[in-house]
Design a protein that fits this description.
Blueprint lengths: L3 E5 L9 H14 L5 E8 L1 H12 L7 E5 L6 E8 H11 L3 H16 L7 H21 L3
Parallel strand pairs: 1-2, 2-4
Antiparallel strand pairs: 3-4
């Protein structure tokens, strides 16, 4: 069985290069030498993200990315939700393009599915380094 990666952009807020995002996720899962995954990446607005954050994580307000690992003993499955609105604000704050920020958030979400944790300073440094490698990959591998 092979990884199955899908992308949804229900609000159509931004013109996303779906092939690049799908290729990035596939590469990351391949590097992790994990069993085949079924991953859905969903781009939403802040209102939708606030609802997810409050309902499932019991935190108020919006956030940039939420990953849900839905895996069980037989299947590796997950969903990654990314707020386009928050990504747009983050890109301005960090002085990067929206595209760069979205790729970074996709990578961040995938690493959470793979059980990486960024609640400690060491964990944050590791995830940032891994995200940087993912960005290097996507910009070297895809004509974007």
């Amino acid at each position: 069985m092979r990884d199955v990666i899908t992308m949804e952009n229900p609000f159509g807020y931004v013109d996303l290069k779906e092939s690049a995002i799908l290729r990035l996720v596939k590469w990351m899962l391949g590097c992790a030498k994990q069993p085949p995954w079924r991953v859905t990446v969903v781009f939403v607005n802040d209102e939708y993200m606030t609802d997810l954050n409050e309902r499932f994580l019991h935190k108020s307000g919006t956030t940039d990315v939420i990953s849900f690992n839905l895996s069980d003993a037989k299947n590796a499955e997950g969903e990654i939700y990314i707020s386009i609105d928050t990504a747009r604000m983050n890109s301005q704050y960090f002085g990067v393009t929206l595209e760069d920020e979205l790729y970074r958030l996709v990578a961040h979400g995938v690493y959470h599915l793979l059980d990486y944790d960024d609640t400690t300073e060491e964990g944050k440094r590791l995830m940032t380094a891994l995200e940087n490698k993912a960005l290097e990959y996507i910009y070297s591998a895809v004509d974007i």
